[in-house]
Amino acid sequence: MVKICCLGAGYVGGPTMAVIAYKCPEIEVVVVDISTARIDAWNSDRLPIYEPGLDDVVEGCRGRNLFFSTDIEKHVADSDIIFVSVNTPTKTRGLGAGKAADLTYWESAARMIADVSKSDKIVVEKSTVPVKTAEAIEKILTHNSKGVNFQILSNPEFLAEGTAIADLFSPDRVLIGGRETVEGRKAVETLKSVYANWVPEDRIITTNLWSAELSKLAANAFLAQRISSVNAMSALCEATGANISEVAYAVGKDSRIGSKFLNASVGFGGSCFQKDILNLIYICECNGLTEVSDYWKQVIKINDYQKSRFVNRIVSSMFNTVSGKKIAVLGFAFKKDTGDTRETPAIDVCKGLIGDRAQINIYDPQVTEDQIQRDLAMNKFDWDHPLHLQPMSPTAVKQVRVCWDVYEATKDAHGVCILTEWDEFKKLDFQKIYNNMQKPAFVFDGRNVVDAEKLRKIGFIVYMIGKPL
Ligand code: NAD
Ligand code: UGA
Question: How far, in Å, is the centroid of ligand 1 from the Cα of 212?
Fold first, then answer.
């Protein structure tokens, strides 16, 4: 029986390994983590992450061939294939701070693997890492090896949160990069045979290590660039009377461009787009490619511009001040169908409104009050460095109330601000909301989910992204 161990029981390690175990009953999969709380949650009825379909998959194989444990060294020593899916956040201090990837977690994982391994291992980079990381990992492993051989593979993950299970069941592609040696090719074939249990052969791409590492950064950069492109157009639509939905539809009909991922929004969020582009920018700079790094910087600049443009629109529409006004924020997660708030645009929008002294009531069906307060008190880039958690700012806490009901959140509000595209926001009783709000009642839809004409008929003043007023 092949034994797999995965370091990191997070948004990637947990679902990815659960699907491997589910699809390959003959493989034993153990997911380990340094966080006891996370492992306890994976072993409980309330999993640590909200992801549609995940409960059923875990239930189908936990205790059969899927296990969650904190006994890291034992399971690493026992396994044949070790996936490393630890966090790789942006560095907050030292060389490359604010751009480069912080590989502290990865390096300590590699040192531990070298230390405890008594048999040959395939070590798989599942985390998103800078191109050439495998070379560094290889050095750490071989220089600390106790006479065993390590083969390093790059197998980046392309799942999106909210659709992780569907993405893992039927991936557009699985990418495996390895050394172009006999041993390297053998390791690639071994990992390929795991995925071949459910992924068609023509969707499993094999490349050299550096292509696999760079393809992951490139894919995220291309995806984020699409959103910044459509968001840049949305600003021009607002200035000219064009409608971004019509423009995106017309543009996306060109089969060379395609219709997906063209929804204008308050800006992209999530733990990876910004982090991975910053990482790409840093690599370009280190290679002297200033023009290339400047090109990718613009994707992040437009995203920041879109978020501040949204805040400015709220403040200027509400007679240039929101001081003391109540604003209901609907949705805090970075996208629907997840409770993840990492780099959510809601943080920047709420901080902007708090800065203008608004009182905000926040409602999100999947995000806890604790999480929201922590996010609003934290400095940029600190969220993924658990050791650097900042204390909560007392002013921010005072101005924020977290509600568990939309109607409670919107009661007596001067404005409603939609920041996540939860399906339930499309079905709200807006007449009831309007009746209980201060007048004039404003709606600022940062996700273009409401029927603006219907709301205007009720009496709302409605602002959508990239659409005529
Ligand atoms: P996460 O923070 O949810 O999970 C990482 C886990 O690793 C944490 O639980 C942490 O405690 C654990 N960890 C850290 N050091 C460890 C060690 N030495 N041994 C064992 N466990 C350790 O992060 P994530 O969202 O799962 O992302 C992981 C990687 O995957 C990142 O590089 C990210 O860029 C990449 N990625 C994420 C997504 C996504 O949708 N979240 C998608 C594709 C790729
Ligand atoms: C993204 C990629 O889609 C995954 O392929 C990749 O594996 C992952 O990053 C990663 O490396 O972490 P994810 O961030 O989970 O996945 O979610 P997306 O669906 O890509 O959405 C990212 C952000 O862009 C969200 O805030 C979303 O609301 C926003 N978005 C997305 C738009 O504003 N408009 C769109 O048309 C699409």
Answer: 18
pLDDT tens digit sequence for 42-69: 999 999 999 999 999 999 999 999 999 9
Tell me, letter by letter, the H, E, C secondary structure of 250-280: HHHCCCCCCCCCCCCCCCCCCCCHHHHHHHH
Task: Identify the three-state secondary structure at position 315.
Answer: helix
Counting as low any pLDDT under 70, the low residues of the chain are 380-397
Binding-site residue ranges: 8-13, 33, 38, 86-90, 127-128, 161, 272-275, 342
* Whether the CB of 105 sits within 6 Å of ligand 1: yes
Binding site membership of 35 for ligand 1 (Cβ less than 6 Å) = yes
Which among 5, 6, 61, 272 is annotated as catalytic? 272
How many A from CA of 377 to the centre of ligand 2?
Answer: 24
Domains in the chain (CATH in brackets) are 3-199 (3.40.50.720), 220-464 (3.40.50.720)
> In whole angstroms, what is the distance from residue 259 CA to residue 252 CA?
4
The DSSP bridge partners found for residue 207 are 177
Amino acid sitting at position 357 = R
Q: What is the pLDDT of residue 387?
A: 42
Query: In this structure, which residue's CA is closest to atom 29 in ligand 1?
Result: 127
Q: What gap in Å lies between CA 179 and CA 184, rounded to an integer?
A: 5
Ligand 1 atom closest to Cα of 11?
A: 26
Q: Rounded CA gap, 447 and 265, in Å?
A: 5
Within 327-435, residue ranges assigned H as helices are 345-355, 369-377, 394-399, 406-410, 430-435
Is 403 one of the annotated active-site residues of the chain?
Answer: no
ipTM of the complex: 0.99
